[in-house]
Every structure is written in C-alpha cells, then in structure tokens.
Known about the structure:
This protein has ten helices and no strands. With about 160 residues, the chain is mainly α. It starts with a helix and ends with a helix.
Amino acid sequence: MVNAQTVRNAWYxxxxxxxxxxxxxxxLYNLRHRAISHMKAYTNSDKTVMxxxxxxxxxxxxxxQHAVETExxxxxxxxxxxxxxxxxxxxxxxxxxxxxxxxxxxxxxxxLERTDVAARITLLKVMxxxxxxxxxxxxxxxxxxxxxxxxLMEPQ
Length: 156
C-alpha cells in the first residue's frame, strides 16, 4: 500500500513542472472531479463511471460530475439542428419580417432577447432559413436554449 503523503508529494513535484497547474494550485481532488466529469461525456453508463472512479453510491459519483462546456455546446448544436428541421420554410405570402428598416440580424436578435418566448418563436418561424440562422447565432446562450427547447416541444 502506498502512503497518501507519498502520492501528494509526487503530485506536488509533478505540478511544479506545469506552470499553469502550479499557478492555480490544482489539487489531485480537482483532477478527480475533472476526470470523472469528462468520463461521463463518453458514456451514459453511471455504473461504468462508478466502477472507474471506485464509487459504490450514485450520489457520490454525481458529486464528482460537473457540466462540461464541450458537452453543453454539443447539446446546443444538436438542439439547433433539430429546430432547423422542425421549422418549415415560409412562402412569400406569409407575414413579412421587417427588412432594411434598421432590421439587421443584430438588431432583430436584441429585440428577440426582450421578447416573450412564444412571440420570439412566431417571429423566427416567419423568417427565411438563412436569416433565422443568422439571428439565432446572435442570441445569448440562455435565450437560444430557451427558444430551442420550446420549439422542440411544439407539435409539428
């Protein structure tokens, strides 16, 4: 059996060789959290992650798991793709979106940020696909997530 202090001493020596780790004083505990969080990104099996981490209880395993930004981006990207497929293209006879009346995609996105989600979706649905994509790209992550979630829940 290896003494815990021996492991810590080895970690401190290794950490000194990586300036960013040393600057942030990253501990072995931090690495454990990060490793378990990233493991979960590769499998939906809690049992597998628990086995790798040596956990016997699910609540212990969940304590070590944190949201990983790459996973968050993957979720948003998937939701955007699903929403693109769910929104029908609009013919020229439908309600027009104000264009060139100072209505750039940035200004439209700013307006939509302050708009109720139902109204936001209605406006997005009447835009052509390219314009809708440009406006969606300019929404804040929170607004985009709320909008896409609601759009995906709507019956088609």
